[in-house]
Write a structure and sequence with these properties.
single chain; 264 residues; alpha/beta; 2 domains; 5-stranded parallel beta sheet; DNAC/IstB-like; nucleotide-binding
Length: 264
């Protein structure tokens, strides 16, 4: 008697329907290997746990909203010989997440700041941490839009609770009111409560320029961002440097043709 037809609805009721995906193969394996009932059950439970973990990972990855699937394994460290690779590897372990410490990454355009930030975010997702990736402009625009619909407090609270928030391209555009105040409020809410990664084309000494309307607000915001922060400077050639086309070589005229045209 085949128990699967009766078993299927029961597994669905218990929210264990994923077991059906490997049940037949595991049953055959148990028969061929003469496994004990407990060993057979252990394999099924292990399969279900692995499926659930993969489902959680995929969900976190979608929620993170990374621009691209950049990982640390794909990062070209050879282009940045001055980069502290030991620090990058230490950050990849996620210790800064437990410390709730900021990570600040600066460097010229195209040196891999966004890649590195997203790669660290990907490491966090693998470790079961919820991540949100956004640009500075999109972040402040989203908060302002939430204000217009009366959802500002809820949106701010949601962003403040994210275990890892990655803010890309800070300082690319000046922060005008109320964007400067919104960013300050978010940084203040997250201060020593959750980890934040920030990337910028500006040198650390130039970050106050992102707040042209209120230098006092700049000081208060940056003071919190810099406190106990891990800082990295990416100094190297741009990944986006254009590829030069080969110089066209003019073909030499055959000697016979040259003589015919009256050239020696």
């Amino acid at each position: 008697m085949n128990p699967v037809p009766e078993l299927a609805p029961q597994l669905k009721q218990l929210r264990l329907s994923g077991i059906l995906d490997s049940l037949e193969a595991r049953n055959r394996q148990a028969i061929d290997g003469k496994l004990a009932y407990t060993e057979f059950l252990a394999m099924l439970v292990s399969d279900e746990v692995a499926r659930r973990e993969q489902k959680k990972f995929s969900l976190r990855l979608r929620r993170a909203q990374f621009r691209t699937n950049k990982t640390l394994e794909q990062f070209d460290f050879e282009r940045l010989p001055k980069l502290n690779r030991a620090l990058v590897n230490d950050l990849a372990t996620g210790r800064y997440l437990q410390e709730k410490a900021p990570v600040l990454i600066v460097g010229p355009c195209g040196t891999g700041k966004s890649h590195l930030a997203q790669a660290l975010g990907h490491c966090a997702v693998r470790q079961g941490v919820d991540v949100v990736f956004t640009t500075s402009a999109a972040l402040t625009q989203g908060l302002n839009a939430a204000r217009a619909t009366g959802m500002y407090d809820r949106r701010l609270a949601s962003l403040a609770r994210v275990p890892l928030l990655i803010i890309d391209d800070f300082g690319l555009k000046p922060l005008r009111p109320p964007a400067d105040e919104d960013l300050h409020d978010l940084v203040a809410e997250r201060y020593e409560q959750a980890a934040t990664i920030v990337t910028s084309n500006l040198d650390f000494t130039e970050w106050d320029q992102a707040f042209p309307a209120n230098r006092l607000l700049a000081s208060a915001t940056l003071d919190r961002l810099r406190h106990n922060a891990y800082c990295m400077v990416l100094d190297g050639q741009s990944y986006r440097a254009p590829k030069l086309s080969p110089v066209a070589v003019k073909p030499r005229q055959p000697v016979a043709a040259a003589a015919k045209n009256g050239h020696a």
